[in-house]
Amino acid sequence: MKRVFASLILAAVVSANAFAQKPVKGSVTKAESYLNKMELNEAKQQIDAAFANDPKGKVNKNPKAWYIKGQIYSSIAQDTTALSVDEAALKTAVESFDHVKEMESAKLYAVQADQQLANLQGFFWNKATEDYNEDDFEGAVENFDFVKVINPADTNAYLYGGVAAQQLGDDKAAVESYEGYLNHGGAKLDVWNTIVFIEKKNENYEKALEVATKAREAFPHNKDLIQQELSLLIELNRIGDAETSIKKSIENDPNNAVLYYDLGYIYEAQKKWDDAIDAYKKAVEIDPENYDATYAIGAAYYNQAVPVWNEAANMDLKTYQQKGAEVEEKALKLFNAGVPYFEKALTLKPDDQGVLEILLGIYQKDNKTAKVEEITKKLDSLQK
Q: Where are the annotated TPR repeats, by residue (predicted)?
């Protein structure tokens, strides 16, 4: 009985060994054959084993082997039956094709590898745009990220990946993608402004300032960027830094009207009206057709006049009878000091409704009937 039992055990062991899976030695040829039949698991086993069991390095030195490996892993990454993209497979495919290009440069497999990478990039780009158009922003972000894996220099993947992330409400991912766009040579001004907007929205003023400063370096003559940087410095109670920065820029570029305009802006923020007006006038001296600086001079006088005029308007009757006329005269003097500059601004932009309305208000306060009628007609014609 014991012999029978021992025989049964022995038979079971022999049977188990007979059915045990033999280790895959690996073969590039077999891997290619399985790939052609789209039997991807078997193809992967063969190619992985071929590279692993390569004591003499023949496989690792063979461009075709790397090319087939890239094809296999590329097919796995693009498998539409899978629940999700195998990102590791995608990275392996890209690394394999890149290795072929390094080994062969302009030869056959290198050219084919380049085409495979382009096809792979197109596959995920199309998925990303399809997801975006269907408002699947999460899918769009993921697929734009895959495009970046395939081609890290594709600035459009970073740009539209950032847009998709914004739509998704993921500010962190959006900023990272936009920064990738800029770091890889993207040059759209809107991207700089969008990063600043996001950081300001999240009250990351230091980061917003850092980005605004870099943007100004990229676009040194852009008025809006300079003012954006200055407004952030003011927000951070670093107006002294702003003034120092602009004055240093003026030393390096003394004939830049925009810089004098911005110096005036800084002085105006501190209510240093005379200094602000002098700076704006310097900007106009350099560039007589500078609308912004011309308007700013008028606005500087106007902004001083308004609280003085309101002081008279808010007086009780007794106080007004005593000194109302004197206060109004002081306000009118300031209003009228700005009129020539508003009128000059109007010659530069004849249909500027905002300037027309400012002039109308001043002429009404100063009882200049003919001027009131003239401006009223002009405004009426613009509104038809």
A: 257-290
Residues 269 and 327: their CA atoms lie apart, in Å, by: 24
**Core vs surface per residue 329-361: b (16+ CB within 10 A) or e:** ebbbebbbbbbebbebbbeeeeebeebbebbbb
Residue 368 phi, psi (nearest 5):
-95, 85
Q: Which domains does the chain have, with CATH numbers?
A: 21-186 (1.25.40.10)
* CA–CA gap between residue 347 and residue 314 (Å, rounded): 35
Q: CB neighbours (10 Å) of residue 77?
A: 24
If you ran DSSP here, which 8-state letter would residue 54 be given? Answer: -
Task: Give residue 193's identity as a one-letter amino acid code.
Answer: N
Side chain identity at residue 323, one-letter code: K
pLDDT tens digits, 364-381: 999 999 999 999 999 999
Give the SS3 label for residue 24. Answer: coil
CA–CA gap between residue 57 and residue 55 (Å, rounded): 6
Q: Give residue 271's region: left, alpha or beta (phi > 0; psi -120 to 50).
A: left
86: left (phi over 0), alpha (psi -120 to 50) or beta: beta
Q: pLDDT tier at 81 (50, 70, 90 boundaries)? A: confident
Task: Read off the amino acid at residue 237.
Answer: N
The predicted structure's pLDDT at residue 18? 43
Q: How far apart are CA 323 and CA 228, in angstroms?
A: 42
pLDDT tens column, 175-217 = 999 999 999 999 999 999 999 999 999 999 999 999 999 998 8
Query: What is the reported pTM?
Result: 0.71
- Smallest Cα–Cα separation from 125: which of 81, 167, 78, 84? 78
Phi, psi at residue 228, to the nearest 5°? -65, -45
Q: Which residue type, as a one-letter code, is found at position 111?
A: V
pLDDT tens by residue, 313-337: 999 999 999 999 999 999 999 999 9
3-state secondary structure of 244: helix
